[in-house]
């Protein structure tokens, strides 16, 4: 029963986007909500005034971009979230492609000003190939961007996905007033440069309630009612099974830098996102609830710590229980190995762990034994399929 309980409370996902869409900022807001950090970094004009938590390498701090996948684990409302913040820049796309093999779902960030961009298209192609469930966050609603209906149409057409709005924006840019939650039937008002919290939410049982005029003005209240009637009429309630089958993508509107619209998405994510899934190997399907450990290496990172010449292999646990100092079978090398200092991550910070379960990502100190796609088991010989192989990335100090 413990295996089942541990698996059910885990969610492992990646955040993907085109560069500068606000992906790293959104990552930090998740960490703030989870209590993993107290102060967010500020990324402005490609110059980091306070280093973003998930940008843990020197090149990232200098250039203001994420170039290597950061692994972050935190708890939110009793759910253990393993978040992989991926590079957005095309020069580091191979790292993102590998990461997408290690997650069970994805959050795609789209810039409301620029809409769908090249890297967004490429990343979504990988998600569609793997039938990965996707939630879309349309960011930067506080900036003058594209018409909301035009933007949704563009995303559906360009990315070949069917969207299902979960929140709906009231205007954009300087006129942005907030979002209406189509699922919970409440209005959350936006105030620039302030942190969104529950005090901003106004419950509305009937969208024809006169409170809309009081909060939005007659014109915007009328437009919102017309929009909601249209959107609800077309989409209705979200079919979670369709989302899990990657047939439909829930959509949220907000402004990550202002912490607005993020909480609604995070609450929905932990409610509907898939738990760790069973996976195919060269021999058979490995059931996620099997008691024996299996896992694969999806990333190898050299010089993670500039003070030491280290090399860390990132292992996605697929079944069973990973335990510190226990011997496991390295399939390719046909030998048993054990790890005295396995790590979990909070961006650059590492902490030694005693155990890990399906869905978790474990950092293993590597002296050169691992390659991308290597498998650890408790005796069986197989490899997990569908993992692209690239050389390890070494970064100069």
UniProtKB/TrEMBL annotation:
Limits of the Tr-type G domain = 8-277
Keywords, sorted A to Z:
Cytoplasm, GTP-binding, Nucleotide-binding
Is the keyword Cytoplasm in the record?
A: yes
The keyword ATP-binding belongs to this UniProt entry's keyword annotation: no
Pfam families, per the entry: EF-G_D2 (PF22042), GTP_EFTU (PF00009)
Q: Which domain of life is it from?
A: Bacteria
Q: Which SUPFAM superfamilies match?
A: P-loop containing nucleoside triphosphate hydrolases (SSF52540), Translation proteins (SSF50447)
Q: Which InterPro entries match?
A: EF-G-like_DII, G_TR_CS, P-loop_NTPase, PrfC, RF3_GTP-bd, Small_GTP-bd, T_Tr_GTP-bd_dom, Transl_B-barrel_sf
Q: State the family it belongs to.
A: Belongs to the TRAFAC class translation factor GTPase superfamily. Classic translation factor GTPase family. PrfC subfamily.
What protein name is recorded for this chain? Peptide chain release factor 3
């Amino acid at each position: 029963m413990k295996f089942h309980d541990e698996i059910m409370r885990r969610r492992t996902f990646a955040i993907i986007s085109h560069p500068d869409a606000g992906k790293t900022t959104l990552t930090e807001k998740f960490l703030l909500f989870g209590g993993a950090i107290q102060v967010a970094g500020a990324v402005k004009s490609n110059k980091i005034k306070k280093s973003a938590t998930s940008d843990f390498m020197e090149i990232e701090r200098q250039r203001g971009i994420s170039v290597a996948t950061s692994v972050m684990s935190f708890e939110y409302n009793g759910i253990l979230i393993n978040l992989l913040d991926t590079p957005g820049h095309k020069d580091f796309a191979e790292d993102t492609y590998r990461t997408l093999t290690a997650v069970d779902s994805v959050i795609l960030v789209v810039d409301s000003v620029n809409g769908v961009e090249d890297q967004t298209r490429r990343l979504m192609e990988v998600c569609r190939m793997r039938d990965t469930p996707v939630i879309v966050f349309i960011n930067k609603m506080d900036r003058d961007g594209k018409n909301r209906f035009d933007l949704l149409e563009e995303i559906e057409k360009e990315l070949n996905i069917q969207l299902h709005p979960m929140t709906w924006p009231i205007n954009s840019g300087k006129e942005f007033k907030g979002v209406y939650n189509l699922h919970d039937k409440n209005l959350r008002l936006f105030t620039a440069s302030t942190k969104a919290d529950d005090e901003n939410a106004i419950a509305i049982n009937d969208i024809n309630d006169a409170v809309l005029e009081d909060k939005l003005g007659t014109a915007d209240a009328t437009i919102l009612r017309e929009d909601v009637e249209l959107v609800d009429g077309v989409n209705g309630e979200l079919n979670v099974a369709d989302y899990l089958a990657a047939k439909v993508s829930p959509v949220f509107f907000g402004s990550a830098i202002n912490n607005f619209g993020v909480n609604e998405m995070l609450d929905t994510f932990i409610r509907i996102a898939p738990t760790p899934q069973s996976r195919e190997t060269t021999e058979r399907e490995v059931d996620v609830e099997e008691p024996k450990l299996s896992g694969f290496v999806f990333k190898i990172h050299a010089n993670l710590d500039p003070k030491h010449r280290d090399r860390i292999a990132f292992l996605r646990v697929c079944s069973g229980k990973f335990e510190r100092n226990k011997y496991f079978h390295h399939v390719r090398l046909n030998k048993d190995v054990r790890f005295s200092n396995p790590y979990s991550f909070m961006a650059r910070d590492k902490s030694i762990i005693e155990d890990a379960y399906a869905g978790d990502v474990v950092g293993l100190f590597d002296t050169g034994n691992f390659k991308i796609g290597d498998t650890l088991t408790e005796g069986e010989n197989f490899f997990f399929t569908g993992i692209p192989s690239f050389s390890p990335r070494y970064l100069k100090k």
